[in-house]
Amino acid sequence: MLNSPNISPFVIFFASIITSNMILSNFLGMCSFISVSNEYKTASGLGKSVTMVMVVTTIINYVIYKYVVVPLSLEYLRYIIFIIVIAASVQIIELVMDRYLPDLHIKLGIFLPLITVNCAILGISLFMVIRNYDFWQTLLFGFGSGLGWWLAIATLAAIKEKVAKNNIPKGLEGPGLTFIITGLMALAFIGFSGIFVIQ
Amino acid sequence: MKKGYLYTIVFMFIVALVFTTVLASVNAIFKSRILTNEQLIEKKAVLNAMSITYNDNEIDKLFANIEEVKKDNLVYYALTDGSNQIEKYAVYFEGSGLWSTLTGYIGVGGNFKTLLGIDFTSQNETPGLGGRIEEEWFKVQFKGVSISDLPLTYGNGIDAITGATLTSKSVMKIINDTINNQVKELEAMK
Amino acid sequence: MKKELQTVFYRNLWKENPVIRQILGICSALAVTNLAVNSLVMGLGLMFVTALSSFTISLLRNYIPQRIRMIVQTLIIAAYVIVVDIFLKANLPEISKALGPYVGLIITNCIIMGRAEAFAQKNPPVLSLFDGLFAGLGYTIILLGVALIRELLGFGSVFGYSLNMVNFTPWTIMVMPPGAFFMIAIFIWISSNMMSKRTEKAKLKKQEAK
After folding, report:
1. How far apart, in whole angstroms, are the C-alpha atoms of residue B162 and residue C8?
2. Which of A29, B43, B171, C8 suits a disulfide with A120, CB 3.0-4.6 Å?
3. Chain C CA closest to residue A117
4. Burial profile A80-115: b = 16 or more Cβ within 10 angstroms, e = fewer
């Protein structure tokens, strides 16, 4: 087993928001990214829920992986374990929110079932395992990736709202144009590469 | 179709049991094969770092002349020629990239003057950006580079990867560190 | 049966192609489309998982309690994905290394869940098997198309064989993530143009008939 990489958790945090954004450079969470980005408000709501679920599930998965899966050498079952943890935590978050934060539940509740099948959530857990992150790296990686996802979907929705009023070639309406905008955003985000100095 | 709680629980239990059994047996069948493959990747990386050309079925034969040495934090492979002279070294390295630990080997000639090559055994950088360090053109650039004046830098015929500045920098840092520490230590031992 | 198979085939490959018509399942796969070999393996893996999980879910469709339907489906899908993962590690180690965590992400690929919910729930096992297989095929074809163009322009090679083109400057952008987004956009554009032309023609024919 390899050691955790010697990377400051804060570098991971900022890099996962900007330079290696979950959507724009890892293509994770595309389905909801494309379909729930027509309106800024909804998109931003989904972004918030994703961030929250991502932090909670990565921590739970980290603990389970480190203290249950590895000692029992069940690594080959990790996909099943992770996805069940994610599905269960989403359910529990929904219940807790319904009980204690009903306002928030009304606002974000509709997105929660969507999130179970959001690839970004499972992706973070898999990346954290394959990259051997320690606890703080995992925590800030999950949080940063969530914020990055939120930033990307909110930006896309804002751009789409503006673009929708213009004349668009017929065949490009809808998803076609969304992909072009996303491509341009990805290009712009790559431009940030190198703003952090490592070590 | 309305079914009771007991049915639900029993059903879930049976499904979980069946699939886990199937998976456990698939895993058991392929386990040794996976292990062999991992060792093969390691061996190929050593050969690539020493820039030895090979085809897949002569790897074991080539390794007859290659010896693995582990000493504290120094792990290396040494290729001896006919007269027991060490001709080439492949030194193991482990260092941090932008996202993950990069591991692999750098090859050094027996006279400790030039790099023979570099190869990675594991990396999990972003595909299409940092992940491109595994592309042949990037690795080839380090072949035959003189290590007499350090540190090595980009420019002068070695290009970084577009859009992956940090991963490229990390690779260079790892190479310099490995030369400064492990390779120097190896040279001193000789 | 034959007729049904034909509709299933046509629908999954073109009319409701999961990638370019329904925009599903893009998540896990675009990242590996800068090399054609990787995309092919990824596509085959997805075909295997979609086909067999549709088959299994359809087989069990009368026994799965409604309340835990989603979790059972996820469990079945995850089990097949693990089989693919172990198989790749044992037989194609280098490709498995290149695909990394993206194999595991097949689990959350919306196509599989989509086929299970929309088709396998209501149809007999063998037909579901083919439905899953063709949905996977529709995905693979698009993915491979994207990958071939990206690899050709980005590296000047096809399936890893360099074409040794003289004076060719690789388009680095095609290897990088934005290249994938632009390629998918172009595929969608072309397909929806062809689609709308066809519907217009059909309309014209109807009017003439009147």
Report:
1. 44
2. A29
3. C108
4. bbbbbbbbebbeebbeebeeeeeeebebbbebbebb
> If you measure CA to CA, which chain A residue comes closest to B130?
A20
On whether the CB atoms of residues B171 and B158 are closer than 8 A, the answer is no
Contact status, residue B129 vs residue B164, Cβ threshold 8 Å: yes
Quick check: B26 pLDDT over 80?
yes
Domain that holds residue B92: 5-189
**What integer is the mean pLDDT of C34-57?**
90
Among A76, A130, A187, pick the best mutation site for testing chain B contact (most B Cβ within 10 A): A76
Mean local confidence (pLDDT), B23-45? 89
Which pTM was predicted?
0.84
Interface of B with A in 16-75 (CB under 8 A): 19-20, 23, 27
Helix, strand, coil content of chain A in percent (nearest 5): 75, 0, 25
The encoded tokens of residue B37 equal 């493959």
> For A134-169, what is each residue's pLDDT tens digit?
899 999 999 999 999 999 999 999 999 988 888 888
Please judge whether B128 and C175 are an interchain contact, meaning their C-beta atoms are less than 8 angstroms apart: yes
State the ipTM, two decimals. Answer: 0.83
Residues in chain A: 199
Q: Closest Cα of chain B to A168: distance in Å?
A: 30
Kindly report the nearest CA distance between residue A185 and chain C, in angstroms. 8
Using CA coordinates, name the residue in chain B closest to A12.
B99
Task: State the total domains in chain B.
Answer: 1
- The Cα B164–Cα C41 span in angstroms is 26
Hey, where are the domains in chain C?
2-204
pLDDT band per the 50, 70, 90 thresholds, residue A2: low
Among A95-109, B30-44, C134-148, whose mean pLDDT is lowest?
A95-109
Partner chains of C (3+ C-beta pairs under 8 Å): A, B
